[in-house]
């Protein structure tokens, strides 16, 4: 099994190169790139400074200036050479400088880590704390009215995109024509530093509730139904009938025997906890104006800040690939029957 995981780790390199190469090529051919935007801004600035009567004219840009822009953005070299340079710099942990912030990409991304980790950890733990007990109770009450109603609600929530749910919650509870219960967005209020200790806690809770709920709504159905089906499958096994025949109570049979084995497939998701740093969604953070990794990625794509886009891709790809391997390792640890060849 050791050789299997060694191969998996070695496969990270070609997989990573393949993902980054495809994305790099796509970014080079997408219209409206940073070079085109810079030229457009220069021409727009020239028009604004020209006379009002010169309608339909554009400010001409010297070819030398265009060549300097190409050199600044690296478009003076062939695509394959630009990718090789990017990979070489990446090997030195250099992701370049952001076009928008004019700072190293690492500094720009790291500054958003605390917010993403905060929402990621809360969403992860709440999902397991709510969905696992709910799935167990649904398995015990399988076919009941509670099971039917909860399944309907769970799948309705699953069918609603997180950003759409967040926007709907803001309309209902963010003031306006309905209830003014939660703030419209942001991570904290502007006067957070001047609040008392309890005021800071309450302000943080108010700014956390709706975004975390939007993050979690998509995973509710998956984890809840997975738990329910796993518990139902284990309740039908012979060892459960043996436990009942020994006179054990239903509570002890379920939580002492069935649930322990039912958590084996669920525990494999713990390997993806390493990717919590990028938890959430680009659009969810845009809806709530949360200054995290999602909003940074969204703004970087819109504004063609390619170094930041590639930096976020590097981190997310590495975390995803390593998380998949950790999931397999956890699966092999919790279930001794599993053997990878």
Fold blueprint:
Layout: H1 2-29, H2 34-49, H3 63-73, H4 79-91, H5 105-110, H6 113-140, H7 145-159, H8 162-173, H9 197-235, H10 238-245, H11 250-267, H12 282-288, H13 293-302, H14 306-334
Helix pairs in contact: 1-14, 2-3, 6-9, 7-9, 8-9, 8-12, 9-11, 12-13, 13-14
In short:
The chain is mainly α and 341 residues long. Helices cover 70% and strands 0% of the residues.
Question: Which terms summarize this structure?
Answer:
single chain, 341 residues, mainly alpha, MetI-like fold, 14 helices, 70% helix, 0% strand, globular
How would you portray this structure in words?
This protein is mainly alpha-helical and 341 residues long. The chain folds into 2 domains: 2-101, no CATH class; 113-291, MetI-like fold (Orthogonal Bundle). Helices cover 70% and strands 0% of the residues. The chain is built from 14 helices and no strands. It has helices at residues 2-29, 34-49, 63-73, 79-91, 105-110, 113-140, 145-159, 162-173, 197-235, 238-245, 250-267, 282-288, 293-302, 306-334. α2 (34-49) packs antiparallel against α3, α7 crosses α9 and α12 packs across α13. The longest helix has 39 residues, at 197-235. The N and C termini lie close together (6 Å). The relative contact order is 0.13. Mean pLDDT is 82; it is low at 46-57.
Determine and state the CATH class of the largest domain.
Answer: Mainly Alpha
Q: Give the name of the CATH architecture of the largest domain.
A: Orthogonal Bundle
Structural class: mainly alpha
Q: DSSP strand (E) fraction?
A: under 5%
CATH superfamily caption of the largest domain: MetI-like
Largest sheet: none
């Amino acid at each position: 099994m050791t050789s299997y995981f060694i191969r998996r780790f070695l496969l990270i390199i070609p997989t990573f190169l393949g993902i980054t190469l495809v994305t790099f090529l796509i970014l080079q051919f997408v219209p409206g790139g940073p070079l085109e935007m810079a030229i457009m801004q220069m021409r727009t600035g020239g028009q604004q400074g020209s006379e009002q009567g010169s309608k339909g004219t554009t400010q001409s840009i010297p070819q030398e200036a265009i060549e300097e822009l190409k050199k600044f953005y690296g478009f003076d070299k062939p695509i394959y050479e630009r990718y090789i340079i990017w990979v070489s710099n990446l090997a030195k942990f250099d992701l370049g400088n952001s076009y928008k912030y004019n700072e190293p990409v690492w500094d720009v991304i790291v500054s958003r880590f605390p917010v993403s980790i905060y929402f990621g950890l809360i969403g992860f733990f709440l999902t397991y704390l709510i969905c696992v007990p709910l799935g167990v109770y649904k398995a015990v009450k399988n076919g009941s009215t509670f099971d039917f109603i909860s399944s309907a609600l769970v799948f309705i929530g699953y069918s609603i995109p997180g950003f759409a749910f967040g926007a709907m919650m803001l309309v209902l509870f963010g003031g306006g024509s309905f209830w003014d219960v939660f703030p419209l967005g942001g991570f904290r209020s502007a006067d957070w530093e001047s609040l008392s200790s309890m005021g800071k806690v309450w302000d943080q809770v108010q700014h956390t509730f709706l975004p975390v709920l939007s993050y979690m709504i998509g995973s509710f159905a998956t984890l809840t139904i997975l738990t329910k089906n796993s518990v139902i499958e284990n309740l039908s096994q012979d060892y459960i009938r043996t436990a009942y025949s020994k006179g054990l109570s239903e509570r002890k049979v379920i939580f002492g025997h069935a649930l322990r084995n039912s958590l084996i497939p669920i525990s494999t998701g713990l390997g993806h906890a390493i990717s919590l740093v990028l938890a959430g969604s680009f659009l969810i953070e845009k809806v709530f104006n949360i200054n995290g990794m999602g909003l940074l990625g969204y703004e970087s794509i819109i504004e063609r800040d390619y170094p930041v886009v590639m930096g976020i891709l590097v981190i997310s790809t590495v975390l995803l690939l390593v998380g998949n391997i950790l999931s397999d390792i956890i699966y092999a640890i919790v279930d001794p029957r599993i053997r990878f060849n």
